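Bench notes, afternoon.
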Amino acid sequence: MPIIVNMDIMLAKRKMTLTTLSEKVGISLVNLSILKQSKSKAIRFTTLEAICSALDCQPGDILEYQKEEV
């Protein structure tokens, strides 16, 4: 998948656990884990906004586009 989720990098930079992020944004630990592992098919803007607010970052800090090799 060409969209890479770098949430683990931002969590490390903020010295925050996934459990703490889950509590701050009100999203289940399971759903955040699926997103963090890039196994999610979609993300709502409200979810992305809540994550960015909790991590004090921009969407581009979390999501990255990489071209697929042909």
